[in-house]
Amino acid sequence: MEQKIFRCGILGMTMKEEKIYRQEAVVPDRGLPFKLFRFEGADGKYICEAHQHSCVEIFALREGKVDFYLGDKKYVLPAGKFIIVNSNEVHSIHTSGRNEAIVLQIPMEKQIMRFSGEKKEEDGKLFALLEKMYRQQIRKEYGYELLMQSIFYQLKYLLVTAYRIPEEKKDYYPGNTHSGHLERITGYLREHYAEEISLETLAATFGCILPSCIIVTVIAKLYLKYRSMEVLQGVLGSLRPAVVAMIAAAGISILITAFWGSRDLIAVTGTKWSLVLIFAVCMILLRKVKMNPIWVMILAGVMKVGISLI
Predict the structure, then answer these.
(1) Dihedrals φ, ψ of 139, to 5°?
(2) What residues have CB less than 8 Å from 98, skipping those under 6 apart?
(3) Would you say 183 and 88 are in contact if contact means Cβ atoms under 8 Å apart?
(4) For 168-202, what is each residue's pLDDT tens digit?
């Protein structure tokens, strides 16, 4: 079977309007320098909303068909083909039917390399190496981690020698200028996630949390003491519409994300009706039955798990 790669640049962004996308932290599999997993949207009717992460990702489709978005460009990815996503490149995935895909994520220190997805003679070899890694992960025979690492370094060597973009051609991708701080955070998580908790880390954590707790407690006590003052009531009354508007905006944003994935995908055909049903049931329980909100949230989680198992 002929193997192909599709590749495109990220949506060009102007200084006047630049979107900020969800930054995912990629934690390698325990004891391995990469993360390899089966794509979670195998059952179809699934949307992985636009996001980015500081790692190189190879999305290889074994069966089925998916719509893969790099920036604002859509690529219909059939079985036997794969896409290379560079570090901090915004991408999303939409599936309508059943599929099976392998995802390999390779953390890249300081984004020292970028890779091209132009069709090459080595495409078939790279796909075969991914297949071998995935089979070893499923079998989990004694010492499989060592064998997976051996195959991985062959794949990484292939990336570096056949797919690396030369220094003079790297300007094609401007990147997301808002990702710097998040990238440092996710990098720290990758480096320290396996470390044991020490007294120093606990002290640092409490040092970050306690000031906020103390300030909020003091403000609460002052409010309880002076809440009957007309001036304070006037200030709080003027702030109430803004608070209600912000809460409403956050709620609408969450509903859009839950029902459709993003504002650009709002359509009847792409609606997740199971989540709409859960939302309607929760609203009835809250408004009509007057059930405790905590029990409603627990019930919503149980309903979502139950629907997923059907």
Answers:
(1) -70, -40
(2) 42, 43, 44, 63, 64
(3) yes
(4) 454 444 444 444 455 555 556 655 655 667 787 78
25/52 Cα distance (integer angstroms): 9
Cα 70–chain centre separation: 14
pLDDT confidence band for 32 (50 / 70 / 90): very high
Contact in structure between 226 and 232 (CB atoms under 8 Å): yes
Indicate the length of the chain as a whole number. 310
- List of long-range contacts for 128-131, beta carbons under 8 Å, 24+ apart: 129/154, 129/155, 129/158, 130/58, 130/60, 130/82, 130/102, 130/104, 130/155, 131/62, 131/102
Model pLDDT for residues 285-295, shown as the tens digit of each residue: 999 999 999 99
**Residue 277: alpha-carbon gap to chain centroid:** 25
Residue 74 has pLDDT above 80, yes or no: yes
Q: Where are the alpha helices (DSSP H) in 140-229?
A: 144-158, 180-192, 199-226
Q: CB of 55 within 8 A of CB of 183? A: no
| Stretch (H or E) spanning 50 | strand 46-52
Q: Which residues contact 147 (CB under 8 A, 6 or more apart)?
A: 136
Residues 17, 177: contact at Cβ < 8 Å? Answer: no
What is the C-alpha separation between 122 and 128, in angstroms, rounded? 10
Give the position of tokens 């002052």. 222
Residues ≥6 apart with Cβ < 8 Å to 60 = 81, 82, 101, 102, 103, 104, 127, 130
Q: How many helices (H) and strands (E) does the chain have?
A: 7, 10
117-176 confidence digits (pLDDT tens): 677 788 889 999 999 999 999 998 898 999 999 999 999 999 988 888 876 454 444 444
Find all residues with CB under 8 Å of 9, minimum gap 6, and list them: 70, 71, 172, 173
Token look-up 């040092």 returns: 207
**Which strands sit side by side in the sheet containing 46-52, from one edge to the other?**
22-23, 46-52, 91-95, 65-70, 73-78
